[in-house]
Each structure stands twice: as C-alpha cells, then as structure tokens.
Amino acid sequence: MLANMKRLLSLVFVFCLAAGTSLAQMLPQQQQQGASQQQQQPSTSIQMPQIGSSMFTSSSEFFRNLQSQGMLIQPPPYDRSVDTNSYVLGPGDIVNIGVWGPTPISYNISVTPEGSIIIPTFGVVRIGGMTLAEAKAYVRQDLSKQFKSGAITLTLIYPRSFYVIVSGRVRNPGRYTVTSFDRVDRAFELANLPRSANDTTTVFPNFSLRRIELVHRDGSVQNVDLLKFYMTGNLSDDPYLRAGDAIVVPGENLAAGSISISGAVKMPGNFEYVPGDRLKDLLELSGGLTGLADSAHARILSWNGSKYDEQTVNMEDTTVLDQPLAVNSRVVVPTDWSKINDYYVCVGGQVKSPGIYPISVDSTKLSTIINLAGGFTQWASLPKAVIYRKTAQAYSRQAIMLDTLSYIFRATGVSQEQLQNFSQELLMRPSTEVVSTNFVKLFADKDEKYDCTLRSGDSIYVPRNTYSVYVYGQVKYPGYIQYHNGWGYKDYIEAAGGPAEDAKTGDTKVIKGVTYQWYSAGDTRIEPGDFVYVPKPTIKPQLYSWNLFKDVITTIGAVASIATTIVLVIRTSQGK
Asked: Exposed/middle/buried for 158, CB within 10 Å: 0-12, 13-18, 19+?
C-alpha cells in the first residue's frame, strides 16, 4: 500500500513539473498576445510631430512614434529585400526570435545599445556587429543547446534608426534621423525640404549632384553621384547610410572642370567632371543614344592644353565605353541620316482614302501611293491634279532668289525684257513649286514615264472636276460655261454671249487651270478648269505711232541707200 502511494505521488510530481514547465513557456506568449490586443485599440490622443521645427522627422521615426502610442501600422517602404550577407545588425534593430516546436515560441526583441538581445527563458545573446546571415547561424546554434526540438529562426522585423549629418550647399544643413534602409538621396531630400508649411521658397542653393561626399565614422570617404542615380536608377550610385555618416554637398563648379556630350543623344549637356569618368558614364548622364545615332563614328575631343585632339571611336565597343575621359573632354555623336524612316506623303482631294502614307526613300512612285489611297473617285479631275513639293523657308528662298538674280543680271546677250520676265518667274516660283508630271497620261494613257518618284513631304492633291470653263475678258456674259468635249475657244466665247464691241478675239488666250501657263487659243486643247481670256485692243499713244512711222521711214531710207551703193559698185566693176 505504501509503495503504491509513493508511486502515485511520483506521478503527480512529474505531472505538476510538466504543467509548470508548459505554463512557464506559454506565459510570455500570452503576455505578447495581450500586448497585441492592446495595440489593436488605437489611442485617442496621439502626439503628431510638430511641423516647422529645425529637425525633420523621417518616415520611420514618425511610424515608430505612432507605434509607441498604441497605433498598429506598417513599416516604411523598402526598395528591395534585405541582403542578409551585407546588412549589419546594430542597436535599435528589431528582430524576431522563433522556436517552432510542439509549443511554438515567438519574441520581438530590440537590439540593445550594447549590441545584444535578451531572450526570455534563455538569456543574453550578443549579435551587434554581425551580418544578418551570421546572426541567424549564431542564434540557431546557441539556442539549440536548450531547445532540442523545433526549428530556430531569427528574422529582421524593423530596421534601426540613427542620426546623420548633412552639410554644405543645402537649404537646411543639420542632423537628421534616418533608418538603415535609407540611402543618401533620402538625407539629401530631407535637408532640402521647406522649414514649415508656410515656407514657399523655391530657390535652391547651387549644389553639386555629382561630387557629394559620404564620410563614414571610420574616416573613409565615398563619392556619391546622385545625378547618375536619378538618370539611371542604378542603386550603386546611391549607397545605404550608416550610423554616424556625414554627407557633404559642395557647390557646382563647371569652370573647374567639365565634360560635355552633344549630337544624337537624348539629353545633350555639359556636366561636372569627376575623376575617373568614362565614356559610359557620360552616356548615362545624357540618357543614352537616340535611335538615329551613328555610334560607329563618335568623336572625342580632348584638350591638351593648347588645342583639342580629335579621336573617332566606335561606341558599340565596350572597351571604348570604359575608356577614361580627360577633364574638359567634348564628345560629339553624329546622326545617321540613313536611319531616318519618317518618310511620308499627304494625299488629299478626290481619292477614296485621303490621308498620310509612308514611302521609301527615293523609290516610291506616284502610282503606288494612288493605289494605296484606293484610286480616284468618280469626281476626280485628273488634268488639274498636282503634286506640291516642300521648299525652303521664306527667308531662305528670298536669299536664294536675290543671290540668283545677282548672277543672272551679269549675263550678256540677254535683253532687259527677258531679264524682267525671268525675275517675275523667280518671284512666283517659291509659292507655286510643283512636280512636273501629267496625271492624265499616267493614269488614263498608262504612260509610265510620268510615274514620278515621290519625296518625303510631298502633297498630292486631286481637285473635284467642275466640268466647266471660265470665260472672261471682253465677252458679254463672263462666267463659268459648262465643259463640252471637242469645243474650241470660239464655242465658249459664243456661249458667253459672244465678244464685246471692243474685243480682239484674234488674241484670245487659254490659261491652263493647273500650271496657269498662257497659250494662244489655237495652240492647246481646252480642258475642264481652264480659263478663256478675250483681250481688248491695245491702244497705242500718238507718240508711239509717230515713232513707229519715223522708224519705218528711216529703215526704208537706209535700205534705199544700201541699194544705191550696191548699184554703183556693180556699174563701176562693169566699166572696168
């Protein structure tokens, strides 16, 4: 009986010991769940950070402030996952320790100022100065001595915050709070924010973005090129901040040294020179080459102290891109005009599908484009269809005209009247420049010699056929007359009421509707859109008649004198 009692007491002792151990393990978890439930009940009085103070609170500290007052919030945004092999743990980092066995245990613990974490039911573990990967392995090994079963994990929950100093050419030099996930651009941004909500100043200091110095606590200095970071998004040009860093922003000084790039690049410009700059760096600063760049014939102009040495390079060669540039170098990237593919013509008027059509350089024919436009409508006037070609700008045309006239007027054997006519034609040319072709012969008669080659910018216009001829001048009823195939100019004059009393029908002219060339009435076939002009007799002044009579008499006298001389010469020769 006594033996049975001892055996029962032993079992009760073992049960109580096991229950006590389980209770001790569950208590921290219950305490943590209680704290979590308290966090889910937001506080009604939250102290917002004051706006306008000399210190700017980073987003991470703002979130931490809300957390301390009972707000459940998310951590600040990150640009990428943490690199466990490079992230170094330090005071203020919040990590999670988990033991995932039959009775899971999970703690969120902050790294102390001494660089340690205090794990309930286990003790102190020093992890400050270790990388995240090293700390994971060390904690797993250390805790496995007590926790024989279950997976042991260490996870970074929230990055630490610390102070950095920003000085130099910024709006508000001073000390700023950042996190270990913040980069140099974040501190630069904080130092250039307005001091208050009422600060509307938009003037920034003349700062350099290419020569920012990042001075670490150990005295090492790292050059930061934020301009390259903004242009390329390459995070290697915008390093992470460390506790105790100082950021020095100098003023921009192009006079001390610069490099420039121009030509077929997206953002030509002149940039500060940084020792070690390569052609690749300059391309990144300019946004890269355009699609029209002739990369095989780029020119690098290097200043040797007295003049520029020129070098032609192929920018598709990676060894060339890694070539260092001398201070004050100038890079010129030419345009490869053969790459330009924006060749087009405009088609309007009486075609079935008017619009803008692409062409190939120096190879697309007129008939090809008309076919693309669906052909002509039933109202198209082929005789009046025309191709207009782009000319130079107005001031250029005027300069060309004046320069041409200067040489033409030096011509010998040309009458003054001919020169005047030429000048008039030259003045008319810029506003009426057309391509010489004949739509009727090409499309009606199928004569391919009129199938001209189009150029980019040409405009093809096919007007509506009005089926009329305009008769004006000395006729009784000037105006439009219905076109009749086979009619001559006299028929149209009669249809216009006949000639007026002072008409000179023998000098009637036909003016073509497209080219506005003048023809004698019997020398051309009248087509729809043409003009028939009936002039009146030219009235000569009396002085003109007298001068004409005098010239005739003088000419007759000269002829008579020559005849008399010839007769005398003949008689004399016969007398001999």
From this structure: buried
d(CA 18, CA 26): 12
For the chain, domain boundaries: 162-252, 255-339, 344-452, 468-534, 541-576
State the Cα–Cα distance between residues 162 and 90, nearest whole angstrom.
Answer: 10
- pTM comes to 0.51
Mean pLDDT of the chain: 79
38: helix, coil or strand? helix
The C-alpha angle with vertex 508 and arms to 505 and 510, in degrees rounded to 5, equals 150
CATH 3.10.560.10 assigned to domain 162-252? The reply is yes
pLDDT, position 548: 62
Superfamily for domain range 468-534: Outer membrane lipoprotein wza domain like (3.10.560.10)
Q: Which fold has domain 255-339?
A: Outer membrane lipoprotein wza fold like (3.10.560)
The CA distance from 353 to 365, in Å, is 17
Q: What's the rounded mean pLDDT across residues 123-147?
A: 91
Closest by Cα among 160, 122, 126, 159 to 144: 122
HSE-up (13 A, CA, CB side) for residue 288: 5
Tell me which residue of 38, 77, 86 sits closest to 158, measured CA to CA. 77
Instruction: Please state which of the ranges 138-142, 348-352, 514-518 shows the lowest mean pLDDT.
Output: 514-518
Q: Could you check whether 255-339 and 468-534 share the same CATH topology?
A: yes
Extract the tokens encoding 52: 């306008």
What is the amino acid identity at position 184?
V
Longest distance between any two alpha carbons in the chain, whole Å: 197
**CB–CB of 174/189 below 8 Å?**
no
- Dist. CA 163–CA 90, nearest whole Å: 13
